Amino acid sequence: MRERVLVTGAAGFVGRHLLAALAEAAPAPRLFAWRRPGGAGAGAETRGATWSEVDLLDRAAVERAVVAAAPTAVYHCGGAAAVAGSWGRVAETLETNVIGTENLLQAVQRTHPGARVLVPGSALVYRPSDAALAEHHPVGPVTPYGLSKLAQEMLAAQFAAEGLPVLLTRSFTHLGPGQDRAYAASSFAHQVARIEAGESEPVLRVGALDARRDLTDVRDTVRAYRALMAGGAPGAPYNVCTGRAHRMQDVVDRLLRLARRPIAVTVEPARLRPSDHSVLLGDPARIRAETGWAPRIGLDETLRDLLDHWRGAVAAEAAGDARPAG
Fold it and tell me: What SS3 string covers the chain?
């Protein structure tokens, strides 16, 4: 029987890459893609997916859409994803990530309880530590976003305990082409592209560069999600990470080496977060041992592809062909 795969948040950064990867599978599944009402439209990368606008906070609408899709697998990529922005939208972040997830899981449990559901979580559920974080490390989020993802994870784990096959991740920082410029590396690359095009002065404006982050290419993250969907054990979280942390200064330095003209760097206080992890490093031992997944794409390739994405977007905008580009 042909698989029927539902992707929520399909118009978002990870969702778009996931849809593209699923469309290339052999045999290709029947794809059902949800985006939020009034959100970005489907792009060329959707390749025949059936699109629907679904408000995750509308319980009845969610159940109707689940019944219509009749999924055998669900990737729940929808929800609030902005860490810095969560400080100004605490209630909205909690509501979207917790109540929206509850509505989806209840609908799947009631109508298609055999469907495997992957709920991507966040490494920001962990208590800050300078050590490599394994899944047994204590939790203790320090941002509203991290709190919402811990509540989401605990909720999903309860559904798993009740028999719904729910897969959980604690995903570390991922980046790559198509990422919104609200995120650090994408912001840096977008600024470099504008400077190269002569649309901005040759100054890169940054936040804290001493922070260290475990950085995974989004395309590797999507491979991890598919590996977990195929062979992960429901109910307990898996770190999705590389096991290596990079200073954000290193990210800036690599982008500047790729730049086509000299660029100065200045730190702007407005780009500093009220609270954060100085180090966010994961231990990928569990996912590697249980699924065989390992990252394939190095940071230099990721940053080159990210910068090329923004070069193309800036050129298209200058030519009067502007499209949403993350």
Answer: CCCEEEEECCCCHHHHHHHHHHHCCCCCCEEEEEECCCCCCCCHHHCCCEEEECCCCCHHHHHHHHHHHCCCEEEECCCCCCCHHHHHCHHHHHHHHHHHHHHHHHHHHHHCCCCEEEEEEEHHHECCCCCCECCCCCECCCCHHHHHHHHHHHHHHHHHHCCCCEEEEEECCEECCCCCCCCHHHHHHHHHHHHHCCCCCCEEEECCCCCEEECEEHHHHHHHHHHHHHHCCCCCEEEECCCCEEEHHHHHHHHHHHCCCCCEEEECHHHCCCCCCCEECECCHHHHHHHCCCCCCCHHHHHHHHHHHHHHHHHHHHCCCCCCCC
Q: What is the pLDDT of residues 269-312, one digit of tens each?
A: 877 665 568 999 999 999 999 999 999 999 999 999 999 999 99
- Residues 164-197 pLDDT 10s: 999 999 999 999 999 999 899 999 999 999 999 9
CB 191 within 8 A of CB 205: yes
Measured in whole angstroms, how far is the alpha carbon of residue 120 from the centre of its chain? 8
- How is residue 238 written in tokens? 């898996």
Structure tokens at 143: 């941002």
- Fill in the amino acid letter for 325: A
